[in-house]
Model the fold of this input.
Amino acid sequence: MENMNLERDIVLALRTVYDPEIPVNIYDLGLIYELRVDEEHRVYIQMTFTAPNCPMADEVLAQVKQAVEDVPGVVSVDIDLVFEPAWDKSRLSEEAKVALGMEDDDF
Done:
């Protein structure tokens, strides 16, 4: 149960980090491919960007790391940046679709 609460808090923290070019947080954009918290409260995040040549990649990665490290109980954060599979619009949450004014037939 404790890891579930920690995971929930981590997701809330990730939702405070926004893509600099899109007014939607990285979690709802679907940029987080995997989130794991082990028994020692070490966090592993596999994530991507909407495009491999994102000019703000380093800044966003630093914001993600800081936001998750600031969650009480987190011991460490390991972020793995990947580009396979490539991000696409199907990964958007319903909240992101609404924020971007998209409908299901926009896909």
Observations:
- The first strand starts at residue 32 and ends at 37.
- The chain has one domain: 2-89.
